[in-house]
Fold each of these.
Amino acid sequence: MSLNGKIAVVTGGSRGIGRAVCLALAARGARVAVNYVSRPDAADETVAAIAAAGGAAFTVQFDIGNAAQVEDAFKKILADCGRVDILVNNAGITRDNLLLKLKESDWDQVMDTNLKGAFNCIKAVYRPMMKQRAGRIINITSVIGFAGNAGQANYAAAKAGLMGLTKSAAKELASRGVTVNAVAPGYIVTDMTGELSDELKTKILAEIPMGLLGEPDDVAGAVAYLASDEARYVTGQVLHVNGGMFMG
Ligand code: NAP
C-alpha cells in the first residue's frame, strides 16, 4: 500500500490519532502537512518523528473552524506542493455535558470544529481533486456518532453529521476518481480519552468485547488503507475500529 509521491494533509496531526495517521502515511511514502491549532511544540515533534523515520513532513497552523484560515492555508499548500492527494479530517474536540447543562457555546464550538471544520477543508480540496481526477478524503467520525452517548449530544450530532457529509461528498466526487470515506474509532488512548475518570474507563472496558482500549495506530492503519490505491473502489463507507464495541 505505497503512497509514494502523494501529498497528504492531516488536520490535528500534532497529537493522538492524527499524529499516528501522519506517521503511517509518511511511512508509506507520502509527504505530510501536519496541521495543528495551538500546540506548535507537538506538531514539531510529529514532524521530527517522521524525519527520524526517513519521511517528509512540515507543519501548518490553522483553525479548521475558520473558513478564511483554511482557504489561505490550502492555497499555500497547493502552491508549494502542487497538489493535495489525501485529506484526513481528523481534528476534533469535546465539550461534554448533559443536554440540560449544555451551553450554546459548547454546541457551537463542537459543531464548528468537528463538522464545519471538515466541510471547510473538503471545500478547499474539492476543485483541485476534481481537476486531478484523483483524491482521497477520509473523515474521522466516532462510535458515538452511531451509538449516541449521554453527555455528548453535541459531539454525537457532529459526528453523525459527518457521516451525511461523507456520503454526500462521496456521491458528488465519485465520477472524478475521488473517494470519500470515514473511519469511526471506538475508545482510543489519547489526550481526549485521558480526561475520562477511572470509573468511566472501567465501565467502557466492560462494553468492549476485546476488553481493551484501542491505540492510535489501530486507527492509522485503517486510514492508510482508505488512502491507498487498493481502496480505489471503496467510497461513501465507514470503517469501524472499536474492538467490537459497536457493529454497524
Ligand atoms: P486529541 O488527542 O485531543 O488531539 C486533537 C487534535 O486536534 C490536536 O492535534 C489538536 O491540535 C487538533 N485540533 C483541535 N481543534 C482544532 C482546530 N480547531 N483546528 C485544527 N486542529 C485542531 O484528539 P484524538 O483523541 O487524537 O482525536 C482525534 C479525532 O478522533 C477527533 O476527531 C476525535 O473526535 C476522534 N475520535 C477520538 C476517539 C478517542 O477515543 N480518542 C474516539 C473516536 C473518535 P493542537 O495540538 O494544536 O491542540
Amino acid sequence: MGKIVLKSVHKSFGDVAVIPSIDLSIEDGEFVVFVGPSGCGKSTLLRLIAGLEDTTSGTIEIDGKDATDLPPAKRGLAMVFQSYALYPHMSVKKNILFPLKMAGMDPAEAEKRVAGAASVLNLTDYLDRKPGQLSGGQRQRVAIGRAIVREPSAFLFDEPLSNLDAALRVGMRQEISELHQSLKTTMIYVTHDQVEAMTMADKIVVLQAGRIEQVGSPMELYRNPANTFVAGFIGSPRMNLITGPEAQKQKAATIGIRPEHLVISEKGTWQGVVGLSEHLGSDTFLKVAVPGMEPITVRADGELTLRHGDPIGLSPMDGKLHRFGNDGKTLA
Ligand code: ADP
Ligand code: MG
C-alpha cells in the first residue's frame, strides 16, 4: 500500500505562505517526481508528507487514513537521505541494520531483510566495509538499503543524486528506476533537474512558487504543456518562446516552438543568421538571430556545416507550434 492524498495542504513559515494550497493524489506504486526551480517548495512539500514539518492547514491521507497529525515514525514512509548521513564507524551491514535494531525487530528477521536489500542493491560483497571504503554510488545505495529494510509503503527522495558527478548520476538514476520496477513501491522523488523528472517519472508534478503548474506523464507535459512556465521548463534545450508581431499573427500573446521542431530551409518562415553553433557530434544546436524576434535555438543534424554568420531560414513543423494567451496559459 502507498496511496497518498493531499487535500488543501497549506504551509506558512511565519507570514510567508510557502505552499498556498495543494491538492494532489499519488497512487499506490506510482513513481512521482516533484520538479521545479530552487526555492519553489519541493522539499517543504516532501517534508510535510514525511511529517518532518507540520501543515498549517489541510489534510494528508496515507492509505485512506488521516495522517496529518501522525509523527514521522508512524507514517510508514522512508525518507532517503544523501550518502553523508551514514555512520562512518559502522560497517555497511550495521548501517543498514540500524533502523531495524532501533525498532526492536527480531534479529533473525532483521538479518534476512538486510541480506535481501543487499542483494537487490548489489552490496552483498561490501557488507563488512566501512562507508569510507566505498564509492559515492555505493554509499548512496547503502542509504537506500537502510530505507528498503523498513519495507515502507512509500520512499521519499529529496535530490538524492545532486552530490554525485554527472556520470554517476546517470547510473544511479537508472538504478533507482530499476529498484522501483522490482519493488513496485510508491516513490516520491524531488529534483530541480527536468531530465531526471522526464527519465524517471510515471507522473511529474511541476511546481512554481508553491503552486502546482501541471501534473502529467512526461510525454503529456512535453506534448501539451499547460502554460509558458511548463513549456519552458520541460524539454532540453528549452522551447523557444516568441512574443510580438510573430505571435500576434497566430492570434496569441506568445508562441512556442521546440528546437527539435524547426526545419531548416532556404524559403523558411523566419529568415535569420547563425550566431553560436554547438557541435555535439550527434546533434548540432544553433542560436539563430532573426530580426525583430528573440534568438531562436534550433536542433539540427550532427554533421551540419553551417557556421557563425551564415544566413538560414527556419520553419516550424506542422502542428508543432504552441500558442499561449496573455495569462500564459495554452490556447485551445
Ligand atoms: P526547494 O526544495 O524547492 O528548493 P524549499 O521547500 O526548501 O524549496 O523552500 C521553499 C521556500 O520556503 C523557500 O523560500 C525557503 O526559503 C522557505 N523555507 C523553507 N524552510 C523554511 C523554514 N524552516 N523557515 C522559513 N522559511 C523556510
Ligand atoms: Mg529542496
